[in-house]
């Protein structure tokens, strides 16, 4: 049994949908038991969200225009893909209803002048409710038995609108009773990704990009043999191919490595997405809808032993904040106060490092939050700054984090040496660094202009040097 998830680009236009249908049909030919999860057509969720926001800010035109654009986009696709006139009429009726609902919602938001997270979940979830029936109809047009299912009827979450958490017990019960019988009859459920509902039926969403999460939840509830995330790239690469043309698809990653990579900016999967799969030990495969027989990456429990460094990723647009001063030495509570102040302005800390001399603490936040953080710290440490226990709160803008990820680094000496000698030879200055005790990632803070060089030389040191054991690549 497999659960297949298709992202926005896989259903983004008629050709893509045709390709997706053929991937599903081929898969179904050797495994009858499949369930499908789909995202909205690409660009649709953004358009819905932006229209609702504009409506709240007093602008009606954006949602009126969006309604036309969305009508066209879905019906043009339907006309190309669905041959049966009757099926097309049913779909057209459905889209008319959904978009009518959309304009009424936006009109109310406009009148109220306010958009709550709860309201936004209703609007933003409409994209999947328009794409899933289209994909199901496209499958039927190819003779593949399929029906669309609104996940609001099966996926139960808490009330954390905008980023709701799934409640697996009631969800799995509904998945079992609703989807299993269908699948046993050979009918493939095409489930809306991203959307869900509370126990009492109030619409929620799992957060942007949440369709992967939907697929993992469904796959877990169905005890799938594999969850397949069908996207528009050949799995997960060893580095960003725009920086390193030699980057190659990784054949296998552990759950932990995938989470580290996602954290450090690789467009992989959100770590929480993997949780339902991890709990049941279900492999998650990332493959390309447009090259289904090409290379893919499977994320599983056990890391391959021969991979030292698996991949390199980077996060951009960051600021390093230094809290510096000789008077900090031996004074307990400075770190606690620092991070409480940062938390109070709801800024996320991406990396922390403190020299053991305790004369500075430095940490990394998004550039966009750096002014707030600096102000919060200057307020928090007003007295210490006055007395020069703390000399200053010093931001360094235009930095990036480069993360080198791989569980095989654990207990292997010499990795850091190789890393730093490669960077040193290339003249890249490392401003700060951190290695978690899991030893499966080393993160370096470097200046933005060193990013390309750093990633290339690290990739070369670990992947293109034949004298060292290379990770298993496709
Ligand atoms: N359509 C939603 C989004 O764009 C969910 C997804 O694509 O996974 O965020
Ligand atoms: Mg998406």
The strand count comes to: 17
Tell me the overall shape.
globular
Summarize the main sheet: 8 strands, mixed
Ligands, ions, cofactors: aspartic acid, magnesium ion
Mean pLDDT across the residues is 92
For the terminal residues, how far apart are their CA atoms? 25 Å
- The poorly predicted ranges are 466-470
Look at the helices and sheets and give the structural class. alpha/beta
Rg calc: 25 Å
Assign a percent range to the helix content.
40-55%
Class of the largest domain in CATH? Alpha Beta
Please, what is the CATH homologous superfamily of the largest domain?
A: Acetylglutamate kinase-like
The CATH topology of the largest domain is given as Carbamate kinase
Question: What characteristics describe this protein?
Answer:
474 residues, alpha/beta, Carbamate kinase, VC0802-like, 2 domains, 8-stranded mixed sheet, 6-stranded antiparallel sheet, 15 helices, globular, binds aspartic acid, binds magnesium ion
In short:
The chain is built from 15 helices and 17 strands. It has 474 residues and is of the alpha/beta class. It is globular.
Structure overview:
The chain has 474 residues and is α/β, with parallel strands linked by helices. 42% of the residues lie in helices and 21% in strands. It contains 15 helices and 17 strands. It has an 8-stranded mixed β-sheet with strand order 3-5-2-1-8-10-11-9, with helices on both faces. A 6-stranded antiparallel β-sheet has the order 13-14-12-15-17-16. Mean pLDDT is 92; it is low at 466-470. Aspartic acid binds at residues 8, 39-40, 45, 127, 193-194, 208-211.
């Amino acid at each position: 049994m497999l659960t297949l998830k298709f992202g926005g680009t896989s259903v983004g236009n008629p050709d893509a949908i045709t390709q997706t249908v053929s991937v599903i049909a081929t898969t179904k030919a050797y495994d009858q038991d499949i369930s499908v999860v789909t995202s909205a057509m690409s660009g649709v969720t953004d358009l819905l969200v932006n229209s609702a926001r504009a409506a709240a800010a007093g602008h009606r035109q954006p949602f009126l225009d969006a309604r036309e654009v969305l009508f066209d986009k879905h019906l043009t696709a339907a006309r190309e893909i669905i041959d049966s006139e009757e099926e097309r009429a049913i779909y057209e009726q459905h889209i008319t209803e959904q978009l009518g609902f959309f304009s009424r919602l936006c009109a109310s938001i406009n009148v109220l002048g306010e958009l709550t997270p709860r309201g936004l979940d209703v609007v933003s979830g409409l994209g999947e409710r328009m794409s899933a029936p289209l994909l199901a109809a496209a499958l039927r047009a190819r003779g593949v038995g399929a029906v669309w299912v609104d996940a609001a009827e099966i996926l139960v979450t808490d009330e954390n609108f905008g980023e709701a958490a799934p409640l697996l017990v009631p969800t799995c019960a509904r998945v079992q009773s609703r989807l299993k019988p269908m699948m046993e009859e050979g009918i493939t459920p095409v489930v809306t990704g991203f959307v869900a509902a509370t126990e009492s039926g109030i619409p929620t969403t799992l957060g942007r990009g949440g369709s992967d999460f939907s697929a993992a939840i469904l796959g877990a509830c169905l005890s799938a043999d594999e969850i397949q995330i069908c996207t528009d790239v050949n799995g997960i690469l060893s580095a960003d191919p725009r920086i390193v043309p030699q980057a190659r698809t990784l054949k296998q990653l552990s759950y932990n490595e995938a989470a580290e990579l996602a954290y450090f900016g690789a467009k992989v999967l959100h770590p929480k997405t993997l949780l339902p799969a991890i709990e049941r030990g279900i492999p998650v495969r990332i493959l390309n809808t447009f090259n289904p027989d090409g290379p893919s990456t499977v994320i599983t429990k056990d890391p391959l032993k021969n991979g030292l460094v698996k991949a390199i990723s980077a996060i951009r647009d960051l600021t390093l904040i230094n809290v510096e001063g000789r008077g900090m030495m031996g004074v307990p509570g400075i770190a606690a106060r620092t991070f409480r102040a940062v938390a109070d302005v709801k800024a996320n800390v991406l990396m922390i490092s403190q020299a053991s001399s305790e004369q500075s603490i430095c940490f990394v936040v998004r550039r966009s939050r750096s002014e707030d953080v600096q102000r919060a710290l200057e307020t928090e440490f007003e007295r210490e700054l006055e007395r020069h226990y703390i000399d200053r709160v010093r931001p360094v803008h235009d930095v990036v984090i480069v993360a080198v990820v791989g569980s095989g680094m654990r207990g292997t000496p010499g990795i850091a040496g190789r890393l730093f000698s490669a960077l040193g030879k290339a003249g890249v200055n490392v401003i700060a660094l951190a290695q978690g005790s899991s030893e499966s990632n080393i993160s370096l803070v470097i200046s933005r202009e060193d990013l390309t060089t750093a990633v290339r030389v690290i990739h070369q040191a670990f992947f293109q040097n034949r004298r060292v054991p290379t990770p298993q690549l496709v």
